[in-house]
Amino acid sequence: MSSEIANAVFLAALFLGVIYGSRILETRWPIADVPYSEFRDDWFAVIVSVGLASLLAPIAAIIAGKIASYTGVGWIVLPTEGYWWYASLAFVVVAMDLYKYTFHRLQHAIPFLWSMHSFHHSANSVTFITGARHYWLERVLADAFLPILAILLRVPPDMAIAAAFIFFIPDACAHLNVRIPLGRFVTWINNPQWHRIHHSVRIEHRDKNFAAFFPLWDILFGTAYVPKPDEYPATGLVPAEQVDVVNSVIWPIRHLRHRASKNEAATTGR
Ligand SMILES: [Zn+2]
Ligand SMILES: [Zn+2]
User: What are the domain boundaries of the chain?
Assistant: First the structure.
C-alpha cells in the first residue's frame, strides 16, 4: 500500500513538474501572447472534461471488455527476444501513429465526430494545456469502442509504457506555445509550429497537418502544409467560440441553445 502512495506522489510531482516546466518555456519563448482569460478557460474546459470522463470510465471499460471478449485480443504476437523488442516497439509506434492520423482525419471528415472534436479546436489560444482539451464524451466513446490496436497486437506491458512515453513528447508538446525554430527539420517530427497550422483560422491551413508523431503521413497522404520559418497563424474556430460551463458539457448540441435563446430574444423583443 505504501508503495502505491509513493507511486501516486511521484506521479503527482512529475505531473506538476511538467506543467511548471511548460509554463516557464511558454513565458520565456512564447509564439503568441495568451490573455489570462483564455488560459483560465482552457484549464476549466480540461477539468470539466477529465472529471466527467473519469466518472464514466468504468462504463467505457465494461464496454471495451465486452468487445474484447467477443473479438479476442492480441491476434498478432510481436517478437520480443533480444533486439526484436526494439524492432517491435518501433512497429508499435508507427502503427499507433498511422491509426491516430487516420482517426484524426475521420474526426474532421465525419460530422458526428467533428461535433465533438471541434471542442479541441475551440481553444482560441493553443498552449500546453490545450493538448488535454477534448470533449468528455469523445474520451468515453474512444475508450469504449476503439481498442483496435489492443485487439490486433499483443504488446507486453513494458513496451506499452515505452510507446506511451515516446508519444508524450510530440503529442503533448505539439500544443506548447513555444517558438522552436526547427528549420528544415520541421517536417521530421510533430512540433508546435506544425500543429499550430492544424489549429489555424486561415483557409489555406484548413484540414492540414493531422499527424501526431510523424508529419510523414501528412506528406504521403497529401495533407501537409509546410510552414514558412515565421508562419505562426492565429488559432481557433471561425467564427470564434467561447466555452462556458454549460457549453463544455453539451458542446455538440450547443447551437440548439443559441437558436433557442435567439428565438427567445425575437419573441421578447430583446
Ligand atoms: Zn483536429
Ligand atoms: Zn491540437
Answer: 31-268
What gap in Å lies between CA 39 and CA 127, rounded to an integer? 8
pTM of the predicted protein model: 0.87
Torsional sign, CA 112, 115, 118, 120: negative
- Residues sharing a CB contact under 8 Å with residue 114, sequence separation 6 or more, in sequence order: 107, 108
Separation of CA 80 and ligand 2 centre (Å)? 33
The shares of helix, strand and coil residues in the chain, as percent rounded to the nearest 5, are 65, 5, 30
The ligand minimizing its distance to the Cα of 235 is 2
131 Cα–ligand 2 center, Å? 6
CA distances from 30 to 46, 128, 171, 183, 193 (A): 21, 11, 18, 17, 12
Q: Mind listing the pLDDT tens digit for each residue in 126-174?
A: 999 898 899 999 988 888 877 777 788 888 888 888 888 888 777 778 9
Q: What is the pLDDT of residues 78-115, one digit of tens each?
A: 888 889 999 999 999 999 899 999 999 999 999 999 99
> How many angstroms separate the alpha carbon of residue 63 from the centre of ligand 1?
26
